[in-house]
Sequence to fold (603 residues):
Amino acid sequence: MPAPASPLLSLEALKVAYGGIQAVKGIDLIVGDGELVCLIGANGAGKTTTLKGITGLQPVQSGTVRYGGEDVTGLPAFQLVRRGLAMVPEGRGVFGGLTIEENLAMGAYVRQDRDAIRADIERVYGLFPRLKERRRQTAGTLSGGEQQMLAMGRALMSRPRMLLLDEPSMGLAPLMVQKVFETVLAVSREGVTILLIEQNAKLALEVSSRGYVMESGEITLAGDAKMLLHDPKVRAAYLGVGA
Amino acid sequence: MHPILDLRHRPAAALVGLALVAIVLVVLPFVLTGIGTFWVRITNLAILFCLLALGLNIVVGFAGLLDLGYIAFYAVGAYTYALLASPHFGLHLPFWVILPIGAAVACFFGVILGAPTLKLRGDYLAIVTLGFGEIIRIFLNNLAQPVNITNGPQGIARIDPFRIGDLSFSTTDSIAGLTFTGPMKYYYLLLVVLIAVIAINLRLQDSRIGRAWEAIREDEVAARAMGINTRNMKLLAFAMGASFGGISGGMFSAIQGFISPESFVLVESIMVLSMVVLGGMGNIWGVVIGAVLLSFAPEILRYTVEPAQRMMFGRTLLDPEVIRMLLFGLALVLMMLFRPAGILPSALRKRELETRRSAG
Fold:
């Protein structure tokens, strides 16, 4: 597998356990600067647990998380955000009682530059025009797809170098899923490094440059996304196409 | 922002309104003394409850952490003052030394309560805080032996009043031809403190800290993903709320001159929480209105319920104490039915309820 020239995020033999259950059994994963990499796998394969391990939401048993050349293993999420590693949690987690604009402002919590924040809110509106139309509406009244866009826009407000996306397509209508992936691609083109965690293997592989396939806590396949998309094993297991 | 205080859009109206409120607040104790000094005392207690409710509002209204033992911090502040300014230990420190100490001690207890409960929310947090409040009260009741610290259920008496130079807050003085009774002096002092606390709360709400609390209240995991140190922010909410409780407690001690564990029972915690909820969680003006209403309501009822019964039935059928609690409960139930977000709901709380209704 062609390893990226300069890794921004790397996991080395990462092990994460829930109680007695070994959910992530020592995985290696690299995301290069500026890359869009996806981690795909079935329900319960350990994808979200991997993410929780990276962001300190679940204690790491052993192994290392390196970000920007620094060992950040076990560092809490709020400190990662301050280092430019932002995340969109599973189930979106928008602030339902706040308006869209307040949600976006909250995303810039770690920043102090008022004028630039204002400009960035407009930039997010440019990316997601639907949010602008509803800027004064509470986030709780948005549809699932709109909430996902808001969650992504809000994560961008911290001006991250890298985004961790956890199942952005979960529970969305097919048309909306398409739209969400388009925006993932758009964000990536803005130069933000992305690790995309997805169950929808086909779409994830289509937008990514490289991919990792996870199965019961282990990485079973890794490589070029186009190659994985045509790999008979992947096609059989995740794309519903007989080998 | 409240319409009366809309300085930007209606500066003239706002200034006139503020001036009127100021005049009423300055003249009030003279009018009340005319009716009976008793009413000035009630007003002072109402202001103390405003301070308490504002302190609890930080924890419950801003950060969304349900605290059912808040009166414990009031107790800690009250006992700190009583022990350092009474014949009990023979210490007589001036109040401006003790009040900060009381705030600090209460703050310390706030962190002690906050630290182990960081991972708890909602009902579970409520149970632990409730227990904490009771633990403090039981300690106060029993710390009389083997070393007599709190004097147990007998409480501590002859607590020093506030004193600035030769001016004592417990005596009647004539200043510039006007007669100021003790309660009147305390009234003005309390008013100044209340204004300061309201100002601090308003600033706090609009600050980065206020926004962090808002985020935590809405969704803690998402708040962490925003780069908010949720642990420290929650501890800060407990610490600040407790400090305000401690200061109020110290003032209560000085005004009453006597305290005992009986003043810090669970019902008091529930009372302060009711003030916050009734007035409008998270809305500073709402909380003040809630505290004033609930402080005065029992007293007004006390003076109307009995005469009203005698007029209607010729005799007192129901004990005023009983009917007071009955009416009080009824008022709370009606409030929750018709204005669930409080008398003056916070903008956020109102929107949340609307969202929930349209979603459900």
Summary: The CA atoms of residues 145 and 280 of chain B lie 43 Å apart. Chain B has 13 helices and six strands.
